[in-house]
Amino acid sequence: MSLRKTAAAAQPLVRAWAIQHGVVPPDVWRELSQAEAELRRMLDDAGAFDCRVWTGAELLRWFSRLSAWPQHMPLSIDRDELGVAQTEVEAQAQKARENRERMERQARSVQLNGESRDPETVDWLKLSDEVSSGLSKAVLNRPIGTFADLVPTADLPKRGGGGGGGGRGGAFAGVPQAKKDMIGLLGELTVYHWLKARQPGHDVDACWVSGNSEQFTGRKGSDGLGYDFRIAFNKQTWFIEVKASTEDPCRFELGETEVRRARDVARSRSAERYVVAYVANVGSTKATTIDILPNPLGPDADGVLNIAGDSIRYNFGRRR
User: Fold this and answer.
1) Distances from the Cα of 319 to the Cα of 36, 139, 147, 272, 316, angstroms
2) Are residues 246 and 209 in contact, defined by beta-carbon separation less than 8 angstroms?
3) Contacts of 102 (CB under 8 A, 6+ apart)
4) 78: buried, middle or exposed (CB in 10 Å: 19+, 13-18, 0-12)?
5) Distance in angstroms (rounded) separating the CA atoms of residues 261 and 259
6) What SS3 class is residue 58?
7) Which of 90, 99, 119, 218 sits 20 to 30 Å CA-CA off 29?
8) pLDDT at 164
9) pLDDT tens for each residue of 159-197
10) What does 147-158 look like in DSSP terms, one character per residue?
């Protein structure tokens, strides 16, 4: 039996047996979602996996040697042998499932205005109204053609990795995709309501062209265009790619389609413009800000957008 199956079978039994006998089980059995990884680490540290594949019974003996098994508990995952009632096993298994679901829900949820919002259950239309009503006048009144006042990249402090999320880029390790997607959608909603405030006579619904738009506008969008909004402004076509963060890391990433579109517009001599709408602090609508940044692959970005690391990741700094 594999470690995964052994750990999954043992966890409710260990907890049920411990309750029945009034003992505290080792911490490794507290959460099923963590038990396998922690047991694997302990076995690796002990060199157990250097030898061969172990049977389920042999794994239980290893657990005992590593103090990962309750004292005096038989080395068994047979309910009858342990003298544990089926109802108690089921109760512990159900509790483990609920704990796992709670942890997964917490991991994928985003804090918005002091409340945790689960992307799988949130009412998106109500959330859109909340974003619209909560944005500051400074954001809603920000002119479309006003670019962020950026400091030269030579003046930027040296940075390591870090922060934020958003769009379909910004895929940082350890952050569930559902959470990154929700942060990106909050950024797009912010830009959507900003554009509606700035262009009241335009059909902004038609301008929102990403896949996120469908549930709000009823129009089918695409995530392969390399931008999220396409608007007419100053006798030009503007392609707006939204990058969002729950904080303000002054950093964003471009995906493959975004790089391609930005490059094509930078090379084009037509009346087109590609910009990045950097939306910071989407976790608090009153603190949310929007900065319009130049095309990262165009000449206007030279000296103010800095490629950070070995990927297409840029950082910048505002003048204060």
Assistant:
1) 49, 18, 12, 27, 10
2) no
3) none
4) exposed
5) 6
6) helix
7) 119
8) 44
9) 544 344 444 444 456 789 999 999 999 999 999 999 999
10) ---BPPGGGSPP
Q: Write phi, then psi, for 12 (nearest 5 degrees).
A: -65, -30
Burial class (CB in 10 A: 0-12, 13-18, 19+), 146: exposed
Provide the 10 A C-beta neighbour count for residue 55.
11
Inter-residue contact 178 to 120 (CB < 8 Å): yes
Tokens describing residue 281: 């602090």
At 91, list the tokens: 């109760």
pTM above 0.70, yes or no: yes
Predicted pLDDT at 106: 94
Residue numbers of the chain with a pLDDT score lower than 70: 1, 50-52, 158-173, 309-312
pLDDT at 227: 98
Residue 150 phi, psi (nearest 5): -100, 145
How far is residue 232's CA from residue 222's CA, in Å, rounded to a whole number? 19
Helix (DSSP H) and strand (DSSP E) numbers for the chain: 11, 9
Instruction: Return the percent helix, strand and coil in the chain, to nearest 5.
Output: 45, 15, 40
Name the one residue in this structure whose structure tokens are 């089918």: 220
Report DSSP state, residue 318: B
The predicted pLDDT at position 315 comes to 81
Count of C-beta atoms within a 10 Å radius of residue 175: 15
